[in-house]
Amino acid sequence: MISCLEPLCTRFSLARWIEWQARYLTEYGARRLAWFFMQPFADQVTFRRHELFWTISLRDISVASELWFFPQREEYTLERVVEWAAAHGRFERGQTILELGANFGSTTLRLTQLTACHILAVEPVPRTLALLKQNVAQNQLTTRVTMVERAVSETDGQLEMLVPLNAYGGAEIFVGGVTRPEAIFQGACETVTVQTVRVDTLLRELDVDPTTIAFVWCDAQGSEGAVIATGEMLWRAGVPLWAEIAPLLLTRQRALERLLDDVTRYFETYIPRPQLDAQGIGALPRSINSFSEFVAQLQGEAQMDVLLIPPSSNASS
């Protein structure tokens, strides 16, 4: 393909060539072509989407490329979660959304548009934190977002994280002696030392009252067990948790069994993502007694986002 395009590329500027080709392509095809041509020449790209400016890494084939290729993919679910929180009075009590695993801000920035809340965005990986800071600043959202460079763990201190260099969003706490079959770990990776914090310690350090948290949005790549275990004060205060449940990642962190126990201890009901997407605020929560069976049905590398609902949140609805 490249050899066929070379004669034309030498006669036309790259921008003109992409623009000309885009006229005959679908929207996805045009984005794919642009991505293909930009990668050899730049490490990052800045573009406008959802009335926001985004800077992403052209090496990131995970969340960043998803925003470029499929800008609406996560929108529907995020809006459904916000609608559910509003319908259940979460914004009447909470003025802050706690986001754990903020990455470059794909959820952070949209939450500032969809809600009036202050966003407490926690991101441990230096590469993604730098992009998060840039995206917050270039959208003039520094007064709406507080950024914290930490990884959630059951201990306050330091740990190493393994970062796939072609998928920053796949970074996870490093555990030795385990197999990582995912494609993102077959390429180049780096190990970085990060500061760790318990959720309860973080809230105390920032002087955040748990009752002022509307909900928690969590994508912690296997550290969800630590989030639930150390966030007891939040769940006791009735704060719902939106979390990615990935049995393979949790097993690598040796946290799956503990997570299942803690979920049963702190939460009363849950709503899986497909159900919330389809039914919105009308989705009927499932009893937490079926959660272990639900997780057991996720095979291999499968994962599922769920809304975990504490007793007091149900009572107030």
Helix content: 40-55%
Radius of gyration: 20 Å
Look at the helices and sheets and give the structural class: alpha/beta
CATH architecture name of the largest domain: 3-Layer(aba) Sandwich
CATH superfamily of the largest domain: Vaccinia Virus protein VP39
What name does CATH use for the topology of the largest domain? Answer: Rossmann fold
Number of helical regions: 16
> How many strands in all?
14
Domain count, please report it.
2
Instruction: State the major sheet.
Output: 8 strands, mixed
SSE succession: HHHEEHHHEHEHEEEEEHEHHEHHEHEHEH
Level-1 CATH class name of the largest domain: Alpha Beta
Distance between the termini: 57 Å
| Beta strand % | 15-25%
Regions with little confidence, pLDDT below 50 for 5+ residues: 1-8
Account of the 3D structure:
With 317 residues, the chain is an alpha/beta fold. It folds into 2 domains: 2-41, no CATH class; 75-316, Rossmann fold. 41% of the residues lie in helices and 22% in strands. The protein contains 16 helices and 14 strands. The chain has helices spanning 2-11, 14-22, 27-38, 63-69, 75-87, 90-93, 108-114, 126-138, 199-205, 224-230, 232-236, 247-252, 256-266, 273-279, 291-296, 311-316; strands at 44-49, 52-57, 96-100, 118-122, 145-148, 151-152, 157-164, 172-173, 189-197, 213-218, 241-245, 269-272, 286-287, 304-309. It has an 8-stranded mixed β-sheet. Strands 6-9-7-8 form a 4-stranded mixed β-sheet. Helix 7 links the parallel strand 3 and strand 4. Helix 2 (14-22) runs antiparallel to helix 3 and helix 10 (224-230) runs parallel beside helix 13. The termini are far apart. Mean pLDDT is 89; it is low at 1-8.
